[in-house]
Write a structure and sequence with these properties.
The chain is an alpha/beta fold. The protein has 37 helices and 16 strands. Among the domains are: 226 residues; 97 residues, Ribonuclease H-like superfamily/Ribonuclease H (Nucleotidyltransferase, domain 5, 2-Layer Sandwich), CATH 3.30.420; 154 residues, no CATH class. The strands form three sheets. An eleven-stranded mixed β-sheet has the order 6-5-4-7-8-16-15-14-11-9-10, with helices on both faces. It has a three-stranded antiparallel β-sheet with strand order 1-2-3, with helices on one face. A two-stranded antiparallel ribbon has the order 12-13. It is flat and about 90 Å long. It comes from Leptospira bourretii.
Length: 869
């Protein structure tokens, strides 16, 4: 099929294009690309630029460490340019110097010989240096470099020597890379202490984002061109992108452009990060640099662009990209972006039909699908479009759809095409609901569970199966035992909701049975059944999904591991052939193990409420209403949890206030109530504080299991700010920046960290950009950026409690979102309780210790526990 017939298949959709430019911040050390200008900087000072064609000149006015960096950076340029004269000038200069230049000489000599194909001589040069060098630091640098350049092994792992790196030593940046390589190769995939490995990797990668000396790593492409991929497959995709960008800038400077290969690889990393506009721009850069390339290669990129636009729900743009495909030059190397397996021409038409349906409706999509001609001998790929037709026919002609689906199921069973059988069986389960064959529907849905084997388990769509049971029983009008299906379906949806739109493509999800409709049916059933715990579970998770989907951007630090693991599950088909060797590596195994560990540690259960000692309130919005749940520990087990629907959008509605008052009246011996902290809970607290001054109101943040040992807490704060220094000797422990931000570990485990310093106004455009700075006794400016906290705080450094004031966030408590994200960071990191005060009162040695007392926050402040008490 040529371009013209493809446009007929697409029913005449016109072309439209838009793109976003990637923003970037300029570095002050190393090679810099800024528009058409390129230059070499050493610690902010311009040394060479493109105007002088980066001709060699002897460095002047630099320290020895800076000179060595200069030689290595210029050396990597000449190596890529195969500039023999340039390399000779550097080596001559190095050999006239006294000091610690020798390693740079031997290293560049070895690399030059390697680039000339003289592998044996290149190894011999480094071996000679290793044998003669008496200094352990330089000898280990050479050994690690030899390992990188000349050793290959399973999973691309290296037997690196662990190095301690100091800024006052030369080759500091190389040392840091070797140290990072050592730590990323320690995890073996499945061990129990995986989390400790990941914490350590986070720590050793952090300086690359913080230390001006590490803004550029000379010879990084020679040291380990796959370092970005290894980090990304571990889940540290932000770090992978950081190093990939460095390598691409060197390409741009030496070759004049960035290779298609690098652009496509960068796009994959950006997709793993969730930065889809940047990924689209990288793929468009591929196309701009790929003029004259084979059509089959361009097809691969247009498929990715079309799928990427679909995933972002820009269905019109998705079709526009698909229109650029030339199916006359199809290649078996093109993979399905959402399944990561070879895709036939029939497969790509099936993919396109979903975008066409989204833009022009089922009639246009069906016409396009019906144009696909069957070959003489049908294989599995040829049957999928027929299942797509059945999917799109269901709401128009369920009888015909059902007959078609049955034929597909029989054929799939005969040929042992398990995935096709599974998708068709789920679809048939929904089809029978349309046909009012409710018993048959539950039989199909039950049968679907045993179809997929281990090889195809990734294709399962448990929330579709469980949703189907709920739809079938509700539509039948009979009370069915679907409470467990609701629970399992909601739990699966909580994990996979970001990829919901893909279920239309991957799993042939029926088009008429929406998630919104499922929640309507599920909540109606749970209400009628009197399943108050199930009702709370569903609404709690429904609101959790709404919150996560409202957040902009993707997670940082260790919080990114679970997110990236999910991206791999659904979007791995956007990878390039260069990454194929890593899919079965210990890097991928380790990421999955760590992701499972984190997910298990963060599994919330509404049943944790049963251990609550305090009267408890959860106010959960759903559409135009509120569901009010109250837990009364005084009642019998059966009656402890109660609920009511409040037909109002005001959290201070009189029905809500009256219900809280009733709860308090039945717990007269308890002067404290706890409220679940969400936006409506925060608003409710403000009203309750005005109306019920005799009651202390506290918050709990989550329904995670957990306990607080309630041990005495030592109070710690940052030594640097002037207002903190004045508290020294008043029961306050003041510590240096490194200890307060978590870079170094304090011996005391039971700590309260006091934050009362203003956020830098320049950082207040979004929460993650917040930073705090001050002038120390020595006159130096010290700073704690929030992103540094993300990288530094872990189970070894997190305080038991945090107390903070309005100055820290720069917004009052009524600006709920910012405070919530601040609290979310600390609680997810392991903090047990947080106190908030608008302003810090005058403190003395007695009142400092009182910061850990909940009653201090009764009037003006807010007290939040990590979990229900």
């Amino acid at each position: 099929m040529n371009r013209l017939s493809l446009s007929i298949f697409l029913y005449g959709i016109s072309f439209f294009f838009s793109g976003n430019l990637m923003s970037q911040s300029l570095r002050n050390h190393g090679w810099v690309v800024a528009g058409t200008t390129t230059k070499l900087l050493i610690q902010g000072k311009e040394i060479l630029n493109a105007r002088d064609e980066f001709r060699f000149k002897t460095p002047e006015g630099m320290s020895q460490i800076q000179e060595i960096d200069y030689y290595l950076m210029l050396g990597e340029y000449y190596l890529r340019k195969k500039d023999k004269v340039g390399i000779a000038n550097i080596l001559y200069d190095l050999r006239t110097k006294k000091g610690e230049y020798s390693f740079a000489d031997f290293l560049l000599t070895s690399l030059w010989k390697q680039s000339q194909g003289e592998e044996v001589q290149a190894i011999k040069v480094l071996d000679t240096y290793i044998q003669k060098e008496p200094n352990l630091y330089f000898r280990n640098l050479a050994k690690n470099m030899r390992t990188n350049l000349f050793q290959t092994g399973e999973d691309e792992k290296k037997s690196m020597i662990r190095m301690d790196c100091q800024k006052n030593k030369p080759y500091y940046s190389l040392c840091r890379v070797f140290r990072l390589q050592y730590y990323i190769d320690l995890p073996s995939g499945k061990e129990k202490d995986m989390h400790k490995h990941f914490v350590n990797i986070m720590r050793v990668s952090s300086p690359f984002f913080e230390d001006p000396n590490l803004e550029w790593i000379p010879l990084l492409d020679r040291v380990d061109e796959d370092l970005p991929a290894k980090l990304s497959f571990l889940g540290f995709v932000r770090e992978g992108i950081h190093f990939q960008k460095m390598m691409m800038d060197l390409e741009k400077i030496t070759d004049g452009s960035i290779s298609e290969n690098s652009n496509e690889r960068m796009a994959f990393f950006q997709i793993l990060l969730g930065d889809y506009p940047a990924a689209e721009e990288s793929l468009l850069n591929f196309l701009r640099s790929a003029k004259g390339k084979k059509t089959s290669i361009l097809n691969r990129v247009y498929v990715k662009l079309g799928a990427l636009a679909y995933f972002q729900k820009d269905y019109k743009k998705s079709l526009d990209y698909y229109l650029k495909l030339d199916l006359n030059n199809w290649s078996a190397d093109i993979h399905h972006p959402f399944l990561n397996e070879p895709m036939s021409i029939t497969g790509v038409k099936d993919l396109i039909s979903v975008s066409l349906y989204k833009v022009s409706g089922s009639e246009a999509a069906l016409k396009a699908l019906q144009k696909i001609k069957d070959p003489e001998k049908l294989n599995e790929a040829d049957i999928w479009p027929k299942l797509r037709i059945s999917q799109m026919l269901m709401d128009q002609n369920p009888e015909l759809s059902s007959r078609m689906t049955d034929e597909i199921i029989y054929m799939a069973q005969e040929k042992k095409w398990r995935r096709l059988e599974y998708a068709a069986t789920i679809l048939q389960g929904y089809n029978q609901i349309y046909r009012k064959e409710f018993r048959k529907s539950t039989i199909e849905l039950t049968k679907s569970r045993g179809i997929l084997d281990e090889e195809n388990a990734f294709y399962a769509a448990e929330f579709l199966r469980n949703f189907g049971f709920v739809f079938a029983h509700t539509a039948s009008g009979k009370k069915g035992p679907v409470n467990g299906n609701i629970r399992d379906g909601v739990s699966d949806y909580l994990q996979n909701n970001l990829y919901e739109d893909l279920y239309y493509i991957r799993n042939y999800r029926p088009l008429a049975f929406s998630t919104d409709l499922f929640f309507e049916y599920a909540l109606s059933h749970l209400r009628d059944d009197g399943d108050v715990w199930g009702l709370l579970d569903s609404l709690y998770k429904y609101n959790a999904v709404k919150w996560t989907r409202s957040l902009k951007g993707s997670p940082h630090s260790l919080f990114q591991i679970q997110f990236v693991d999910k991206q791999f599950q659904y979007l791995s088909g956007f990878s390039t052939t260069r990454e194929s060797k890593f899919f079965d590596s210990t890097y991928a195994d380790s990421r999955e193990t760590e992701s499972q560990f984190q997910r298990k540690n963060e599994e919330e259960s509404v049943r944790n409420l049963e251990s609550a000692k305090l009267p408890t309130i959860l106010l959960l919005p759903y559409k135009e209403d509120f569901y009010l749940f109250t837990f009364n520990p005084k009642e019998s087990k059966r009656n402890q949890l109660s609920w009511k629907v409040i037909h109002s959008q005001r959290p201070d509605n009189s029905d809500i206030i009256d219900s809280v008052r009733d709860l308090i009246n039945t717990n007269k011996d308890n002067d404290t109530i706890q409220i679940y902290l969400n936006e409506s809970g925060a608003s409710l607290m403000r009203s309750l504080k005005k109306e019920m001054r005799e009651i202390q109101i506290v918050f709990f943040f989550s329904l995670l299991p957990g306990s607080d040992p309630h041990k005495p807490l030592g109070v710690f704060s940052w030594k640097c700010p002037q207002n903190m220094r004045s508290l020294e000797g008043r029961g306050m422990n003041l510590v240096d920046t490194a200890y307060f931000e978590g870079s170094r570990i304090l011996k005391e485990k039971e700590r309260l960290h006091l934050w009362d310093f203003p956020a830098n106004t320049s950082s207040m455009n979004q929460v993650t950009n917040l930073s705090w700075s001050c002038k120390s006794d020595s006159g130096n400016i010290e700073e704690i950026p929030f992103l540094k906290l993300f990288r530094r705080i872990d189970y070894r450094t997190v305080p038991r409690m945090v107390v903070y004031t309005e100055r820290v966030i720069g917004k009052s408590w009524s600006d709920y979102s910012w405070h919530y994200q601040w609290l979310h960071f600390w609680f997810r990191s392991g903090t047990k309780k947080i106190g908030y005060m608008p302003t810090l009162p005058v403190l003395d040695s007695g009142s400092v210790s009182g910061l850990a007392d909940p009653s201090k926050y009764r009037e003006e402040g807010v007290w939040i526990q990590a979990t229900v008490q």
